[in-house]
Amino acid sequence: MEEDEQMTARLRQDPKLPFTDEQAAQALAGARNRAREHANPKDEYETPRRIFDPLNYEFRFGIDLAASKKNRLCGSWFGPGHDDGKYNDSLSIDWNGVAAALWLNPPYGKGIDRWVRKAYEESAKGALVVALLPANMDSGWMHDWVLGKAELRFIRGRVQFTLDGKRPQVWSEKRGKMVDSGNTGGNVIAIYRPFGRGV
């Protein structure tokens, strides 16, 4: 509660925002609700077209493996909210044979190790999986399921992800408002080729 009172006081002091106490409280509640709704917005980030389009030209992806109806990049996709319930959980589906090439931009939070392990295991069965991953070179999942198992193409500069077509926003305690969220690390394209066709 003390934090809310401090925020309300900050909102009231901003000369550009002539709020009454009630309006300040409503603005604060709205900002906090938006921040809670996107507590981990990275799980919903959309792949920028400047990254996807050249790879799609090269590989001709048939399925977006970690998508929603809203942010899918291929005509076919697996993910929450799919009209056919069996495609809601991509990790429980056999990927091999569903398309010639598969696109994967997995959720970057906890559990990414399951996605890269699945990509590797499916490539062992014959699938071609191309994944956009954080370049976390010190992480266990990178050493266990990416290095030496996939062709790597590092992306120069930071990938600017979007959410609903706009830069994602997060609550900044320091600034007392919603601010654009930036990508805090580098990214890499990991290409899991079917075994026997080179790594």
Concise overview:
With 199 residues, the protein is an alpha/beta fold. The protein is built from 5 helices and 8 strands, in the order αααβββαβαββββ.
Structural summary, described in words:
30% of the residues lie in helices and 16% in strands. It has 199 residues and is an alpha/beta fold. It has two domains: 1-37, no CATH class; 45-192, Rossmann fold, CATH 3.40.50. The strands form two sheets. It has a six-stranded mixed beta sheet. A two-stranded antiparallel ribbon has the order 6-7. Helix 1 (2-13) crosses helix 2 (21-37). Mean pLDDT is 82; it is low at 32-39.
Structural features:
199 residues, 8 strands, globular, 30% helix, six-stranded mixed beta sheet, 2 domains, Rossmann fold, alpha/beta, two-stranded antiparallel ribbon
